[in-house]
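Many introductory courses stop at the sequence. We go one step further.
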Amino acid sequence: MIDERDRIIIEMLTKDARTPFTEIAKVLGISETAVRKRVKALEEAGIIKGYTLKVDPAKLGYHLVSITGVDTKPEKIFEVAHKLKEFDFIKELYLTSGDHMIMAEIWAKDGEDLADIISNKIGKIEGVIKVCPAIILEKLK
């Protein structure tokens, strides 16, 4: 079980994974060593699974980001998902319920690049029935 201090640690690290343990310790009124032990315990329990880096795709030349639904033949869903995981242009990949069976975050250089990805890469995977991109206009949160 996690307590309120653990929840605060998780919240602070979620906002900024590089928050110094000394800063967290000050907020909680405990020692840096105690914070370090709590974080290690949260990691060992699998609550904290890792730390990540957020980048601006446009600064790397990817001016189009798409949340794309992929529908497959039911018996091919896992094969398709496995193949999609291999593409570098797919940054996040989820099996989902609802409108689409698979959802992928795709980074593309421009509309032409996205069209090529959809028709010549994803669309040609055996078992793919439909590819439905939704271009992100602005990230709000």
